[in-house]
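We modelled the chain as a single entity of 273 amino acids. Its sequence is:
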Amino acid sequence: MKPLALSALLIGLGLPSLARAEPPAPANLSTPKCDAPLDLLRLVHPLAHFAHKLALREPIMIVAIGSSSTAGSGASSASATYPSRLAVELKKLFPNREITVLNKGVGGEEVPDMLKRFDQAVVANKPDLVLWQLGTNSLIRDHQMNDRGASIREGLQKIRATGADIILIDPQYAPKVNIKPEAQHMVEFIAATAKRESVALFRRYEVMKRWGVTDNMPFAAFVAPDGLHMNDWSYACMAQGLGMAIAEAATRPVQSAKVQSPKAVPASFGLAE
């Protein structure tokens, strides 16, 4: 089956077509291609609460919590962070809906640090969807995540108590992450946690790995000079993919809301041509 173009996918979702605009390229580099196949972007679990708010045409609150790659280290400005870019993408996808994306990232934090401020940063904002980026700082500091399982579950319980949908976001694919022997284990641990807790997972590590391994992009095209954080282009491309994943999961027909293996979905989002 040939890959499904973005415009066809949007028509199938009942969403407006988008003008294709590539994220800005890093200085001295040609514009990279921002794309990812559906099996990388598709969220296994539908976003039922988000979908309900869409149906009611009510305002939607999204809270992005995490560490420096949520706060936006490596970005040229606050408007270039992934939460800011995601707000732009969701406005394109849902032009007649009021969707707010709050950036509650704090550099240097690990799961226990985030958990200490969950009540104020997350719960108090009455979210409809929470994006929880975790794992990178524990990995680069050689801290184990296995003993953080209880803290992650506590955070998920706090989010569930609000009624919000949840998307976990795993570490970035970058030189300072990849040199760690436990990098792959960390990615697998977060994936296993998402599966066990029946929450959605945005596989940022695999999406970025595709840029480097499949698309043959140099790290300088999508990683900041510090070798760890994302840059304007990669934050924007991540936001495009995450926005499309959210839109698909929130508008997925009820009969297809069952858990599927990504391999069962051969189409591609084709975020650029």
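As a brief sanity check on the tokenised model: The longest helix spans residues 232-250. Residues 115 and 217 are 36 Å apart (CA to CA).
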